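hi! just following up on the protien thing from before. the input was this:
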Amino acid sequence: MAETTLRRGSRMAGVSRLQGALRMAAYLPITVDGVFGPVTESRVREFQRINRLKVDGVVGKNTWSALSAWVRDRQADLKALGMWSGTLSGSWSRELDSALRAYQRKRRLGVDGIWGPQTRRAVLADRAVIKRESVLVNRVVSTVSRFLDAARRVVGSHGRRWYGVVVHHSATQVGNVDIFRRAHLARGWRDIGYHAVIGNGTAGLGDGEIALGRSLGLSGAHCPGQNTRKIGICLVGDFTGGRVPSAAQLKALTVLTKAFKEKHGFSAATVTAHRDHVPTACPGSIDVAALRRAL
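and the predicted 3d structure came back as:
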């Protein structure tokens, strides 16, 4: 924000930026007209008093600095929410006003370009969600990295190529690789049928945690007609009857499938649901079409 000293009687572009910032910060009433009159001076004094600055109604270095810092924080908030593409200049502009109004419209708040209580609460809530998602993504990426390291050790020894993925649910509330392995061995299979299992937080396998099942060097035993061509990924849970996977499981499924797709060069169209190949409800409510779009 410009640091030209402003006082009553000033008429310049900096006055509009000052008034716009004060209005956005809810120092009302004020009009953005570029004229530093008695109303603007009153709002400046109010801002100075609240921010423990010298209360003289003159916008000098310290007042500009405090106001610029506030505007910069709001630009950072809007940028984090995908609503501001400009720099973190600390300078109010018509574009910043439009960005705030667009956010208010998107969140169905009162559209006034003022950072009032409702807008502040909505931004704090949305940023908290983004922070949680960021933590989740980092955790999933770390898990996928460890999983792929294990997978590469297997794949590297035989160079097998895969041509897609089949998505399953376990149709059980509890599960992990060992539980499924025992069940599949009891059927006379040589190992667990799935190549990867994504946990739901039960049986010691974390929510969204990925575990290596059958060796990627071996054909699967998860879907007739697809076992030699497609990797089998199973999400622990029964997703029929309106039940859905956790956000962590879906994020892990997306990241893992994308990693396999990039490694083996197959197209998103070859990522399918179990029910696409045989009469079954599997994988329940998992939206494989949405998964393909995310790839």
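The mean pLDDT is 91.
The first strand starts at residue 165 and ends at 169.
cheers
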